[in-house]
Specification:
Chain lengths: ~120, ~110
């Protein structure tokens, strides 16, 4: 079974440029998450989707970040314009059921490492 | 917001030694999890704990969910080089209608052959 696929693995851009990350979750997983992981820190949630609906985007900096999951499968995360502080690893994860069932098992992709110069 | 405190921040041990790390919170959580992250990879779930006082093992790993529901520890017995990585505790935050995972800052484990 294929895992969570993310691209690109690495991206280097200059500040004020746009950037986009793509994620394809595990087949059949209805819940998709985008996390940001700064160096030396744990992952922090940006947005969670249940199917195509964004059910929690409270931590997403909406002035420059946007995300979509149009058909309830793959998703894109965009930053426009990027700032120096956006340098981080952007992790996508999926799970079979996002309900508060106590399972908590998220399957993560390898991440997209962004460097903003 | 909620914060998880993991200790130690890093550990350097000899192969074969046992390892112990813990995670505390000022708030009560009903689900505690331990993830491991290898370099260049995403975190992978090791153990999930759903009941206060629960002690769960997964091979050489043992984790306990504190009776106060504010802490958890993870033990690794007889460490081997492939145990190297960053270990994160996480809790399920049931704010709103669904759950989100909140991660600690991690414990970085280095194993000397």
């Amino acid at each position: 079974e294929a895992g969570v696929v993310q691209s690109p693995r690495y991206k280097i851009i200059e500040k004020k440029q746009p950037v986009a990350f793509w994620c394809n979750p595990i087949s059949g997983h209805n819940t998709l998450y985008w996390y940001r992981q700064n160096l030396g820190q744990g992952p922090e949630l940006l947005i969670r989707y249940e199917n195509e609906e964004a059910v929690d985007d409270s931590q997403l900096p909406k002035d420059r970040f946007s995300a979509e999951r149009l058909k309830g499968v793959d998703s894109t995360l965009k930053i426009q314009p990027a700032e120096l502080g956006d340098s981080a690893v952007y992790l996508c994860a999926s799970s079979l059921n996002g309900r508060a069932s106590g399972i908590g098992e998220l399957f993560f992709g390898e991440g997209s490492r962004l460097t903003v110069l | 917001g909620q914060q998880l405190n993991q200790s130690p921040q890093s550990m350097f041990i000899q192969e074969g030694e046992d390892v112990s790390m813990n995670c505390t919170s000022s708030s009560i959580f009903n689900t505690w999890l331990w993830y491991k992250q290898d370099p260049g990879e995403g975190p992978v779930l090791l153990i999930a704990l759903y009941k206060a006082g629960e002690l769960t093992s997964n091979g050489r790993l043992t984790a306990q969910f504190g009776i106060t529901r504010k802490d958890s520890f993870l033990n690794i017995s007889a460490s081997i080089p492939s145990d190297v990585g960053i270990y994160f505790c996480a809790v399920m935050n049931y704010g709103g209608s669904q759950g989100n995972l909140i991660f600690g800052k991690g414990t970085k484990l280095s194993v000397k052959p």
